[in-house]
Amino acid sequence: MSAVDVGVPVHGTGTTTGTGVLTRLALRRDRIMIPAWVYALTAAVLSTCLSLDTLYGTLKERTDFARSMNVNSSLRALYGPAFSGESIGALTAWRMGCIGAALTGLMSILIVVRHTREEEESGRQELLSSGVVGRRAPLTAGLLTALTANAVLALAVAAALTVLGQSVAGSAALGLALAGSGLMFAGVAAVTAQLTASARVAKGLAGAVLGLAFLLRASGDAASADASSPLVWASPLGWTENLRPFAGDRWWVLGLVAAFTAVTTGTGYVLVARRDLGAGLLPARPGPAEGAASLNGPFALAWRLQRGALYSWAAGFAVAGALYGSVGNSISGIVEDNAQLGDMVRRMGGPGALTDSFFATAMGLLGMLAAAYAVQSTLRLRSEETGRLAEPLLANAVGRVRWACSHLVFPALGTLVLLAVGGASAGLAYGATIGDISGQLPTLTGAALAQAPAVWVTAALALVLFGWMPKASAAAWGVFAAFLLCGQLGPVLHLPQLMLDLSPFTHLPKAPGGHQEAAPYLWLVLVAAVVAAVGLTGFRRRDLAGD
Predict the structure, then answer these.
(1) Do the Cβ atoms of 95 and 52 come closer than 8 Å?
(2) At what angle do helices 199-223 and 88-115 cross, to 10 degrees?
(3) What are the TM regions of this chain, as residue ranges (predicted)?
């Protein structure tokens, strides 16, 4: 029997030995998550291109639309400036460039931290490292997995846009802009994974860097209409924006992306050699010898585990709501000379007044964001299970349903908090603009909260996957992506009503402005309750960490 067979380190093992095996393992573990991300992002770009092509068929319509977008600082802060209106590709890059780059960065952060810090925190990496695995192999495998995901995304986006008739160069530039953002924040995650012993904190630190980059870019774009502000150039997301797909294709910007990626990944490699396995470079803060009375019980533990994510999402909802509210007063002016845009807003937000239709659409988008949070907080059950953290709790006087419900409080009530924050922020911003805070604050807060039943249905479906098919739990993100495509983009793409009805968001009355009935809300709440009960039943009957 060889040293490899018994797991004894072999003399002379290189620092990256075993990278190939770990990479194949990582890709196998992410065989659902990565395709779901790539599908969702590619579908968003594709559907945006198709809808814009339907709305703006002539050069004059496109240039007028691009000009109207650029005069609104709030829209520039959200999407960036439209550098050109000559092609549908240029408008697609404007609509999806900044937001798509941020989402791609988030995807890469989750991938890298999952295969580095999470593996160490769970103890699996220590077991693997007892064999022929080099010190830098896990980090290399995580980065290669992120590189693979971003490369596939770039190819998918470029191919899809080319098939739709857009220029090959511009399509490739947009695909590389998205992938470049992903690689930069993969490097950021490589650094944060070395700083702390907690995967949750590592994700939080990397997410904070991503959020700061987005805010810097948004502030710079709000101040200038051509992305020339120093704040834009201080942000990695501002670099990918200035690649300008379909509007000049500044290929030299990719040099900045490559340099940033090289520096961050290089820093990650230096830091990983300076710490012990399982430890972080930042000193761990020791807790008290005895836990506080407030930590007694499974809910208290769940709150401690989930509160950071809830706070971060709440901050994001406050910013998003304020941006939507600041645009509301100018929406009529934006579309007054564009009947097609007004028609699109009404198809998505209902046939009422244009401002009401816009806010109904905005509240629907907040509802989809809340659904993303609901899926994430529900799947925390799976990460606790696979990390072997649930088993010690369930070995005590804590039943499975009680433990699961302690985490399900967050997709149930946490989403209400997020929707209330987003709606109130929009109401305050819009009310301050038109001088009617007392009227708009309750109206838009209520409109946002009206999205909750559809969000609960989404979370309940994620719970069913966790309860009955735990290894396929990540498919919940595919369900979310399908709801996003059918519920939000379906009316613009004129999808068949049968497909639109697959999304619970389709069945919500439009708010504000639409006719309100209690029946749709009650039916969705009932469906969510029944589906959740099915998911809990499956969890009670299966083995832990089983199929």
Answers:
(1) yes
(2) 160
(3) 36-59, 93-116, 137-161, 167-189, 201-220, 251-272, 308-327, 357-375, 408-432, 444-468, 475-500, 520-539
